[in-house]
Amino acid sequence: MTTSMQSEIRTGANDLQYNGMLELKKKCGVCLKTESKYTCPRCNLSYCSLLCYNSTKHAGCSESFYKDCFLQEMKSKEAVSTSEKLRILEMIKNLDEDCVDEAEFDDSLHSRLEGINLDDHDSVWEKLTADEQAEFLDGVKNGTLVDEWKPWWTSHEKNLVVELDESSVEGKCATSSAIPQRKLNVPKLTELLKSKEPSPLVSNNLVEVLYTYAYHCRKYNGATTDLPSESGFNLISGSTFLLNGLTRPSLEEALEITMSACSNHNRDTAVPHETIEVLLDVYHILLGPDKGNVTLYTKVSLAECHSYCTALKRCRELPSTVNRTLVKNALRKLEFLYAWADHAFLEFPVLALRVFGIYKSKISLFSEHEMHKMSRSHQGHPPVKRDLITEL
């Protein structure tokens, strides 16, 4: 046998030995994916990480291990009195019972909802017990079911906001959510228009888009980023400027139409008090955080809208009322408004006050309407009797 053949045989034997060693390496007994690195000293289970060690598959062993360690530590502490040990053991027992009850509850609810279409609200409701239904309704009534979202645009420097009658912004500013870190890289307005001057009605389009954005942020409790493509569709559907390219001749008309469009798109039967309050959100956005950066909130809002429409554009299938060309045009319009905000920053304080004036007018009319309804109610004011048949 030649030297070269002996070398090849040794190489092949080494390869077989190495491959055999690889096969002997066990995978994690919990996730069954990653190579195991450790072995449980109690049950000899091979695992890859602390996450797998503490998983539900290994919970019985790991919890028992921690409990034994704790009890052993208690025995070694002479300073701990017998009554204190009994109290702690009672707490552990109660905790174990609570965990069992919670697990049984989760298993029961999971089994009841198994095979049920979770989008079918009626079917899900029927599977809930009477206590669960009562707990849900109580949470809706008290507002404890979902934490109330505090808009990030309500945070301003001191003395920047016009003092309101009942809608004080103090307190809101301290608890408002974080400002989204979004911006757009767009050319300057002079580069987009070249030698042309922007229309004086651009501000009407901007306010319309901001209202639609704030309306849906309020409606979905700030969770618009969870479904960006749906938010993009809602945004375009609520703004006639983004949908049809229409520019309204007055700020009042632009707001009136977009308020109606948002209500119709979301199947709201009437314009409630909360819909009028969205005008106050637009006012806050136009103010910005301080006098030196009045356009920041507007540009962040437009960048958010741009991200929603971009997500809508990437969808394989679009709703029947929009198409890809329409979405592309909406993106260009948002980019134009973003460039205009940088160019016309001096107009923002006046524009904010105009929106605030419209808000005050509408909220005053709404209050008068409510007072009129109360005055015509039957409480203390019986209805005037009228003859059903009048002699002619």
How would you describe this protein?
With 392 residues, the chain is an all-alpha fold. Among the domains are: 115-145; 152-375, no CATH class. The chain is built from 16 helices and two strands. The chain has helices at residues 3-24, 50-53, 59-76, 82-113, 121-127, 130-142, 172-175, 189-193, 202-219, 228-238, 240-244, 251-265, 273-287, 296-313, 324-343, 348-375, and strands at residues 38-39, 46-47. The chain has a two-stranded antiparallel ribbon. The longest helix is centred in the first third of the chain and has 32 residues, at 82-113. 22% of the residues are buried.
Uncertain regions spanning at least 5 consecutive residues: 16-24, 101-106, 163-174, 385-392
Mean pLDDT: 77
Q: From N to C, what is the helix and strand string? A: HEEHHHHHHHHHHHHHHH
| Strand order in the largest sheet | 1-2
The number of distinct β-strands equals 2
What is the gyration radius calculated from CA atoms? Answer: 33 Å
Q: Mind describing the biggest β-sheet? A: 2 strands, antiparallel
Name the structural class: mainly alpha
Strand content: under 5%
Oligomer: single chain
> What is the molecular shape?
elongated
Number of helices: 16
The first-to-last residue Cα distance is 134 Å
Considering DSSP H and I runs of 4 or more, what fraction of the residues is helical? Answer: 55-70%
